[in-house]
Write a structure and sequence with these properties.
By secondary structure, this protein is an alpha/beta fold. It has a single domain, classed as P-loop containing nucleotide triphosphate hydrolases (Rossmann fold). It contains seven helices and nine strands; from the N terminus they run βαβββαββαβαβααβα. The strands form two sheets. It has a five-stranded parallel beta sheet with strand order 2-7-1-8-9. Strands 4-3-6-5 form a four-stranded mixed beta sheet, sandwiched between helices. A hairpin with a 2-residue loop joins strand 5 and strand 6. Helix 5 runs antiparallel to helix 6. The model has no long low-confidence stretch (mean pLDDT 92).
Length: 188
């Protein structure tokens, strides 16, 4: 089966990961694409579930062998990308592929897969509400929050290049709207 790609991008704190998790539990034939990275696994992360962890050398070797559909060196020596084999695995299982991916990676996937990909940008209601959400997480200091807000402004500047922009001002409403949009796209 040649399935479809469902691409989700958003600034940190927009609710994207929660929306993706609910989509995966919705009963639709969708599976999450596990990204590859050269960074070390965190204590609670598992290889093959959270990421495919590998050394920077191995990652660069896979780049040379054209094994990635998209990849980026996010920080010096820290790579992230999508393996072709991951998409093939999900399609062989008869599912559509769901991505929770950065803006540039999402747009690159959309360019490659064109009408077989739906790129959705999850927009916070405002930068102020995004700041409040990040503060409520209580997981980062003020400096890191400011850094995330600066990055969010940059990411939002790409929103109009996505197929759909969904404003997450009410999580349940946003999830229902997203699932309806995806059902329509899958059934096209």
């Amino acid at each position: 089966m040649k399935g479809k790609l469902l691409i989700f991008s958003a600034p940190s704190g927009s609710g994207k990961t929660t929306i993706v998790r609910r989509l995966l539990d919705s009963g639709l034939n969708v599976s999450f694409s596990v990204s590859a990275t050269s960074r070390k696994a965190r204590a609670n992360e598992m290889n093959g579930k959270d990421y495919y962890f590998m050394s920077a050398d191995k990652f660069r070797e896979k780049i040379k062998k054209n094994e990635f559909i998209e990849w980026e060196e996010v920080y010096s020596g820290s790579y992230y990308g999508t393996l072709r084999s991951e998409i093939d695995r999900i399609w062989k299982e008869g599912d559509h592929v769901v991505f929770d991916i950065d803006v540039k990676g999402g747009l690159n996937l959309k360019k490659l897969y064109k009408e077989n990909a739906l790129a959705i940008f999850i927009m916070p209601p405002s930068l102020k509400s995004l700041e409040e959400r990040l503060i409520l997480r209580n997981s980062e200091n003020r400096e890191k929050i400011i850094e995330r807000l600066d990055k969010a402004s940059y990411e939002i500047s790409f929103a109009n290049q996505f197929d759909q922009i969904i404003i997450n001002d009410d999580l349940d409403k946003t999830i229902n709207e997203t699932i309806d949009i995806i059902k329509t796209f899958i059934n096209k």
